[in-house]
Design brief:
Number of helices: 2
CATH superfamily of one domain: Carboxypeptidase-like, regulatory domain
Helix content: under 10%
Radius of gyration: 19 Å
Number of strands: 20
CATH class of one domain: Mainly Beta
Shape: globular
Largest sheet: 11 strands, antiparallel
């Protein structure tokens, strides 16, 4: 499989690094292409980064996707406002300055856990969940996702928002049937007016959905009482080994949309790489940006 990383003007994105869940990490060549090899069949997660910034991510299956060339387009951050010393991304304008480059990461947090769907159950139109996302034990941001409506052709409108201590970003996204791809998006940065966002390939890859057999086989404890900011729930604890030294844990209940109240990625030293806890859930969500 080949991954092509492109920068402004479709020039090769020299220095971009492509990593894969099979352990490969490849820097693109002079044409912007990195070639990955796979020895086993099955699903894999691929990410593209440039100077520590996320560019794109993909979920692929071998051997069916082996002949594909995936294209990742890098969008540089907007220039900081004059006189601020170049710290706008850290002080009050994080999403508005970095938003275009952060789309792949934000969608991963909202819908994925290392390429797999974090939802083990469905949302009904109007239902929403709220989350607190932490990395390395530090609170990073809060996110909320809501299933707004389903169109007659099967496409779905969702709302996804992110909030830090100093900035916010709200997106309303039109997904294709079963959230396979993004068709359209509107966004509001901070207190600005909503704007249409140009949608291109490579922002979003649909998460891989686990089979019922895999879900049931991963249960290590049943009827566990767990307390998160949204309340106390009786859950099944699920554990998956994604690669050597990394474990994905989820806590599943029947009482919330999506059926998951907490998930975490843990390293081989039992240290949290990141974790997410539900802070709230409910019904009655509707468009805030006039998207439909």
């Amino acid at each position: 499989m080949k991954v092509k990383a492109l920068g402004p003007g479709n020039a090769p994105l020299m220095g971009a690094v492509v990593t894969c869940s099979n352990g490969e990490s490849v820097t693109v060549d002079s044409t912007g292409i990195a070639t990955l090899t796979f020895s086993d069949v099955g699903p894999y997660y691929i990410s593209v980064r440039y100077r520590d910034n996320p560019v794109a991510s993909y979920n692929v299956s071998m051997p069916s996707d082996g002949s594909k060339t995936l294209t990742a387009n890098y969008v540089p951050a907007a220039a900081p406002a004059g006189g601020n010393g170049g710290v706008a991304a850290e002080e009050g304008n994080y999403f508005s300055v970095m938003g275009a480059r952060l789309y792949p990461l934000l969608f991963q947090y909202a819908f994925n856990a290392y390429g797999y769907s974090i939802d083990l159950g469905k949302y009904n139109p109007g239902q929403y969940t709220e989350w607190q996302i932490s990395t390395d034990g530090k609170d990073q941001f809060r996110t909320r996702k809501a299933y707004l409506t389903k169109l007659p052709n099967g496409e779905e409108w969702w709302r996804v928002s992110f909030q830090t201590k100093s900035d916010s970003m709200l997106m309303e996204v039109l997904f294709s049937d079963k959230l396979q791809s993004i068709k359209r998006m509107r966004a509001r940065f901070g207190n600005e007016s909503p704007k249409e966002v140009p949608v291109t390939e490579g922002w979003y890859t649909s998460p891989m959905r686990l089979t019922p057999e895999s879900v049931e086989g991963s249960i290590v404890r049943k009827n566990v009482s767990i307390t998160v900011p949204a309340g106390t729930f009786t859950c099944d604890q699920l554990e998956f080994g994604l690669m050597q030294g990394f474990t994905l844990r989820l806590w599943r209940t029947q009482d919330v949309p999506g059926k998951v109240v907490k998930y975490e990625m843990v390293g081989n030293n039992h240290n949290d790489i990141y974790d997410a806890e539900m802070t709230g859930y409910g019904e009655g969500a509707s468009t805030q940006l006039g998207s439909f």
